[in-house]
Amino acid sequence: EWILWKYLVGILFALFLLLFALGIRQLLKQRRPAGFPPGPRGLPFIGNICSLAASAELPHVYMRKQSQVYGEIFSLDLGGISAVVLNGYDVVKECLVHQSEIFADRPCLPLFMKMTKMGGLLNARYGRGWVDHRRLAVNSFRYFGYGQKSFESKILEETKFFIDVIETYKGRPFDFKQLITNAVSNITNLIIFGERFTYEDTDFQHMIELFSENVELAASASVFLYNAFPWIGILPFGKHQQLFRNAAVVYDFLSRLIEKASINRKPQSPQHFVDSYLDEMDQGKNDPLSTFSKENLIFSVGELIIAGTETTTNVLRWAILLMALYPNIQGEDSFDDLRIYAKLAKMTIFHSNEEFSILVLKNKKSTSRAEYHRFTPKNQLTKQTKTYYICFSCLGRRHCLGEHLARMEMFLFFTALLQRFHLHFPYEVVPDLKPRLGMTLQPQPYLICAKRR
Ligand code: HEM
């Protein structure tokens, strides 16, 4: 029995030493390196994670406050991961434009590694894989999308389906979110799969819901903790597990969609993005360095769908909310741009700089320059009517590749809606205007009545 005790005490002591060593290692990792930008003090082990992700304030509000104390460039400790926050047009331009090569990477966070192995497009490391995938996506969006003369009429066709559904409510209150998501994602679907999905296609809707949920989960404190301490992944519960489960369902669904889209494929005669990708895969068959693969195809398709849907949907949801909030301007022939962009995208996707292994967040508060343009709903096809709704992170190599498409979509959907309906809140009750954190800042769910003009 005595030997057993000695054995047990030995194990406990070894465990204690191991934990002690790991603790010291973590605390050393959390020390701000010499010359690193200043920033708020964090807690031992978890650094600033709690203040950033779990406080009552939204992250951009917290960061704006820190920037008032520590300056335009400051640092945060995300549990041993050093992050630098850039807050101001000049500093963001300096890094993302003048030093674009250095800041074009994405950080290898455990979550991104697990989700896309740093492949695909949006989260890809800056290298050949990203160059190949970005080139293919940009060309496909131009060739199968806004580069086609008929593409505007394809969007207009979708706006008709959209308007028809709104008509069925006959001015009764309803939440536009699902409808806008379906309609907007169909524009991207046309380019990616060559077809739209009906609004009754609940499988596709479910996939988008899971994807959006994942984007929200990715911004949660417990997933930040997973990034700092990836061993948390072995725990069978928690938000990270929910995220992994959702991702498995989404990838499975996407791979089936891709298979279906390629059934009638004629090699070298692509009809949509998936066809073009498969052609690239064929061409790269004998190239051991080719980055085109079935797996990267799934990741890219998923990223393009969500990047194109969440953002544009939420701009339209804000626009509708603001129209109902200021009903007088709905009747006017033209009005000044809404500056919706200021609400939507306060930060951008993480960038990284390999040399210093830091993260770069852009707090866009001070980067979005106010641009007012006349907006003329009645004049929807007049190209001179410039509508700048949003800041697309037009700076640097990773700038949004869907900007042109998004502008077209937002303009056509918004004008189609305003031309036919007057929007107001049911019983004139104004909903909560506090934004909700997801991939972008989105409005809280709200009901709206669309009355035929
Ligand atoms: C209102 C709509 C949109 C907004 C506000 C928006 C905003 C952004 C922002 C802020 C970034 C990050 C840029 C950076 O890392 O510095 C981005 C990247 C990206 N966007 Fe958009 N976007 C919109 C629509 C779209 C659409 C319609 C698509 C395509 C279907 C798209 C595809 C992408 C992709 C693929 C990236 C990653 C680019 C890369 O890493 O090389 N976006 N977008």
TrEMBL record:
InterPro entries: Cyt_P450, Cyt_P450_E_grp-I, Cyt_P450_sf, Cytochrome_P450_fam2
Residues holding heme: C400
Gene Ontology biological process terms in this record: organic acid metabolic process; xenobiotic metabolic process
Pfam family, one: p450
Keyword Transmembrane: yes
Domain of life: Eukaryota
Gene Ontology MF terms in the entry: D3 vitamins binding; heme binding; iron ion binding; oxidoreductase activity, acting on paired donors, with incorporation or reduction of molecular oxygen, reduced flavin or flavoprotein as one donor, and incorporation of one atom of oxygen; protein homodimerization activity; vitamin D3 25-hydroxylase activity
Membrane association type: Peripheral membrane protein
Cofactor(s) needed for function: heme
First-listed, main subcellular location of the protein, grouped into a coarse class: endoplasmic reticulum
Transmembrane region(s): 6-24
Gene3D superfamilies: Cytochrome P450
Keywords recorded for this protein, A-Z: Endoplasmic reticulum, Heme, Iron, Membrane, Metal-binding, Microsome, Monooxygenase, Oxidoreductase, Transmembrane, Transmembrane helix
Location within or outside the cell: Endoplasmic reticulum membrane; Microsome membrane
Keyword Plastid included in the entry's annotation: no
One cellular component (GO) term of this entry: endoplasmic reticulum membrane
UniProt record similarity statement: Belongs to the cytochrome P450 family.
Official protein name in the record: Cytochrome P450 family 2 subfamily R member 1
Organism annotation: Ictidomys tridecemlineatus
